[in-house]
Structure formats: C-alpha cells, structure tokens
Amino acid sequence: MEKCEISSSQLESSLPYPSSFTSVILCVITLYLVYRLFRSLREKKDDGRRYPPGPKGLPLIGSLLDLRSDVLMKMKRFADEYGSIYTINLGPTNLVVLNNKDVIKEAFVTNAACMSHRPQVMFDTLKQSQGIILKQPGDLHRKNRNFLSTGFRMIKLGVPEFSYHLHPHIDNFKDKLIASKGQPLPICSTSHRLLFEIFTDLMLGEVPDPNSEKVNKLLDILYIALSPNPMLALVGNLIPNWVKSALSDWIDMADCLAKVTRYLKEHIHQHRETYEGDPTNLINAFLHKEKLELEKTSKLREESSSGGDSDTEIEKAAIGTSFMVNDQEENEKSLAAILLDVFQAGCTSVVASLQWLLLDLAIHQDVQDKLRMEVDRNVEQRNQRPSLLLRSDNFPYTKAVMLESIRLHPPAPLGAPHCAAQDTKLAGYDIDKGTIILPNFLMALQDFNQWEDACDFRPERFLNEDGTLATRETLGFSIGPRQCPGKLLSNTVISSILTDVIQDFTLHLPPDHNFSLKGNPGIIYNPQPFSIIAKQRTS
C-alpha cells in the first residue's frame, strides 16, 4: 500500500471525519444557522410552485449530517430514490443536483444564459472572484478565456512541437520507473511531482527544485486544497473562525489559494524584469501580449492626437477582446487569477486522471496490450516518439481508453457549482433565483440508461465498428459555456505521458496489492493510494 510523500496530518486532514463534522454543524446551528433559516422561512411563501423532490433532512440543518462522509455514495442513494434531479437542503442553502446527461445539458447548454453564474457562497468561502472558474459570465469572463486560449497557442499547444515541453519531464518519470527495478512504485507522490513539474514549466518556464522547502510546501498545498468534503466547502463561510481554528480537520481553502497566488505573483514580477520577447511559457505569453496591446494603444493615441478622442475611447479601441487595461497592477492581478485556475484546478485534475488511467491499465492487462500494439504500430511506421504522432487519427484506441477512464472516474465528479441568475424552469420543475445547481457527473457518466454495462471498463464503447473513434458526448470536462478551457491541455499531457510510458514499460499491480476503485471523497476525485510495478520492455 502506498504512502504519499505528504505528511500524515495533511493527508488525514483531507478526509471528512464524522465527529469533527458533527461539531461543525452543531456550532453552525447555535451561532448562525438558526437566525438565517428562520429569516428565510418567514420570507418563503407557499405559492404552489413545483420544486424538485428530495430528502426532508433535519430541522435547521437539512441533510448536512447525511453528507458528512462518503458524499458521492450518499448522493447516489438520493438519485436512486428521487431520480435525475433532486433538491438537498444544506441549512440556509438549497442545492439542486442534476444526475443525467439530458438534464445537465438542458441546464448548462439550453438554459446557459440563466445557469452559467457562480453562487455567492463560493466567493465568500474562497475569497476569489477573478480568473475563469470563479468569474461571473460576461465580457471579462469571455476575455479571460480568450487570453488563455491565445496563451496556449503561443506556447504551441495543439501542434506536435508542444510535446518537446513535456519530454524532459516524461523522461525523468521513466527514469524513476527504471530505478524502481521491478519493485512497487508509489504512484500518488510520483505522479503528483511529475505533473507539478510539467505545469510549473508550462506556466513559469522553470523546473522546480525538488529540494526546495518552499516548492515542497506549495506541492503540499496543491494536494490538500481541493481535498475537502465538497458539501463542507459549500457552507464553509457560515462556520465561525474560532470554530474553524479548533478543528483539526478544517482546511482553509481561501488561505491555500492565497498562498498559491502569492507564489504566482512573485514569478510574474520576476519575469517582467527579465523578459526578452520569447513567449515560451504562459507568463511570457502574457507579457508579450501586454507589450503588443500597449504598443497598439500608443500608436492609436498618436494617430488620433488631433482627433479629440479621449484616452478611454482609445484604450477601448486598442484593447478590444483583451482583459488588459492600462494598469500594470490590475493586469498582473488578472493574470495571477488565470494562472491560479490552471495551476490549482488544472494540475490537480490531470494528476487524478493520470492516476486512474494507470490503475485501469494495470488492472486490465488486455486493454494495456491492445494500447501497446497501437503505439508500436505507429512508431514502426513513422520512426518517431509516439507523443509526437498524437495529432494524427492513428490512435483511436488510445483516445478511447482515455475517454473510458475519464467516464468512469471524472476528476471533478461534482464539477463546480452553478447558480440560477433568475427564476426559471428545469426538467419541468421550478428553480428559484439564487438556487445552487450542482451537476453530478459521476452519476451521469455511469447512467445505465445512457451507457451499456456502465460500470465496466470497456474502451470499445467509444469506437465504431471499423475501429475509428466514435462521436459520443462525454461530460468529463463539463459542457456549455463553462466547459473546462484546459481540456486540450489535459488530453495532450495525459496522452503524451501514456504513450511514451506504454512504449517502454508494462504496468502491473503488486501480487499482494488490494486495490480499490473507490475514490477519495474530495472536490478532486483521486484514487486510493496504490503502487505499480513497471517492467521495462526488452524489445
């Protein structure tokens, strides 16, 4: 059994212990929820509207105690009882949970204009409102997404040359597999370090020092920040600070995110002092774009100096679709928030996806053999490293394996909460303005009405009869305007690691290993710690 290279107290703190959770609830009841709930009850009128069904829960606290542990299993039971859409009461907060693809698509695509907002409780809990994930829909959100897409293109994401960014890190990972000499290698710490190095290189243009105390603390923060019980995270702002400080298992997500943000801002300042015009990482891509925008503004100002245009009008004309303004500090704040999304959510979700994929392949040797045959065939035909060939259509089985692994183990099974911006209808039910909408991707992706043998690992479901990749809508990266903007990055990184490793190694579970397919119940859905035996191929 693997032991992560993270302190036991930190790892334990990521798991929701019922006793501490109960203490939290009791304190919340006593100090805050009573007032909030009775006030809401006085204001609520029985106007005959039809709301989604759901568990009644307890007075004052709703279903919080039911969800104090094993959240995903409890929510599955609710779905089995109440259907594709149901309501959970979390004290003063009502939560509508969506459990199949059709109702999720209705909410986030058909009704996207109303249901693409983020709930205020997220801003209150995380103390963040910028970037992409937490930004409310609108012009700035669109500009932030556009900038990230531009930055990705500037560092060559989407073309074969991008793999050269990844090769040194993948080679280092393969060296660790070789050094293990056929002995069980802990995948939790090894994969987390690998992806941390890759994302640091892509964003900051540097390889982190593995012996740096500061770097290792940041790695720990990234690991634990998204590990809390998601239901506790939703009501975290209601818990008094003195209660939080008394709880051994409380994780202050806002503090974690603030520390990562400070780290990113330090590097933005350093890059600004040394940048020489080569956008090989996301910070330099930002500085390059900022330079172009300022030059454009200056040129327009010169051309219109006799035209009487105001500075504001000139800047608007120059900036166009950019989030940048003529304020260096504000620009850096926006960039830090965007990088935080990529670093925190992107890195941790890719780690989870890679861990599940390696576990799936170690369990299903027949799938691993078919995948290796496809890799070998492409390498023999083109005499290139497999990660350089992934842009072709010659890896349908590889892509099917990745899709199937993410279907069974979505890295963020409950996604990010949405919020109804106005009173609306969903699946025939009334939804009040301000209601939190939570997609249960894990339920939707294992829905027996949508997927045959839904709980089986069967990549062939994503292939046509002729072996080409089938077009099947999946929800692993959400859907609609809030779909994850890092989907291409995630798929590229994982497929590059996967094909390069499978070319050189066979992966096995230790003979005495009791693996589990039950993930850790955090915001990010990691597998239980496990080890793999990597045997180097001789031919």
UniProtKB/TrEMBL annotation:
<keyword id="KW-0503">Monooxygenase</keyword>
<dbReference type="InterPro" id="IPR001128">
    <property type="entry name" value="Cyt_P450"/>
</dbReference>
<dbReference type="GO" id="GO:0005506">
    <property type="term" value="F:iron ion binding"/>
</dbReference>
<keyword id="KW-0560">Oxidoreductase</keyword>
<feature type="binding site" description="axial binding residue">
    <location>
        <position position="484"/>
    </location>
    <ligand>
        <name>heme</name>
    </ligand>
</feature>
<dbReference type="InterPro" id="IPR036396">
    <property type="entry name" value="Cyt_P450_sf"/>
</dbReference>
<protein>
    <recommendedName>
        <fullName>Cytochrome P450</fullName>
    </recommendedName>
</protein>
<keyword id="KW-0349">Heme</keyword>
<dbReference type="InterPro" id="IPR002401">
    <property type="entry name" value="Cyt_P450_E_grp-I"/>
</dbReference>
<dbReference type="GO" id="GO:0020037">
    <property type="term" value="F:heme binding"/>
</dbReference>
<comment type="similarity">
    <text>Belongs to the cytochrome P450 family.</text>
</comment>
<feature type="transmembrane region" description="Helical">
    <location>
        <begin position="15"/>
        <end position="35"/>
    </location>
</feature>
<keyword id="KW-0472">Membrane</keyword>
<dbReference type="GO" id="GO:0016712">
    <property type="term" value="F:oxidoreductase activity, acting on paired donors, with incorporation or reduction of molecular oxygen, reduced flavin or flavoprotein as one donor, and incorporation of one atom of oxygen"/>
</dbReference>
<keyword id="KW-0812">Transmembrane</keyword>
<dbReference type="InterPro" id="IPR050182">
    <property type="entry name" value="Cytochrome_P450_fam2"/>
</dbReference>
<dbReference type="InterPro" id="IPR017972">
    <property type="entry name" value="Cyt_P450_CS"/>
</dbReference>
<keyword id="KW-1133">Transmembrane helix</keyword>
<keyword id="KW-0408">Iron</keyword>
<keyword id="KW-0479">Metal-binding</keyword>
<dbReference type="Pfam" id="PF00067">
    <property type="entry name" value="p450"/>
</dbReference>
